[in-house]
Design brief:
Length: 214
Amino acid sequence: QPGQPLRVMIAGAPAAGKGTQCAKIVDKYGLMHISVGDLLRAEVAAGTPAGRKAKNFMDNGDLVPNEVVVEMVKNKLGEDEVQQNGWLLDGYPRSGEQAEAIEKEGIRPDIFLLINVPDELLIDRVVGRRSDPATGEIYHLTFKPPPPEIVSRLVQRSDDTEEKARNRLRTYHANVDAVVGYYKNEVVEIDGTASMDMVFEDIVAAIDGIRHLA
Ligand code: AP5
């Protein structure tokens, strides 16, 4: 609705570029970024009960059980700051049941961005990814090389091996159609094979397009 804070969902296969584009979207639109993968990794690192439950599923590239994820997301979306600024939900819903769970609460996006990249490009993106724990910046050894002076502090995610990525891809393909089925009227498909800046241009056009309609 006009004047209402924007609500955006972003989806795509592992390493399709969700995190990369979310940083740009947040800069431009000031939305609150809710990355379920990042929230879960923080729980694992802190050794909380939720993190202990989640760890093996994440390491294997399987979905973490809904009992851990659903409440976490609902609580986040309910925070005052998130309601006031609008949200960018990254990595949720990942199954029909997860979509159903927020649907019941009346939570829907204004736009559902689906970043498409063929599987054969994704493995290279996964194994070359490195992130900077100091800034949160995402790099790629080939596609977005890090400055030499920070290389020694970069980290690689434990699920970023080829074998685990293949299972993450299987999980994604098994669920994506059910999720998209909930957002048929909001979905905008984005070609994720282009350069990071081109992908962002398409996303801005899509978001600004629906804002003009509002
Ligand atoms: P999550 O952390 O969400 O991982 P993912 O979905 O596998 O996605 P990634 O973070 O790997 O990739 P991305 O799309 O953000 O790509 P990025 O921008 O980094 O989830 C991890 C795990 O948590 C799941 O497996 C599951 O276990 C659990 N989980 C999460 N949500 C859950 C839920 N709702 N329910 C249950 N369990 C859940 O880019 C990748 C690389 O490519 C980077 O190196 C980047 O530099 C490069 N790159 C990006 N864009 C381009 C481009 N256009 N051209 C060239 N290179 C590019």
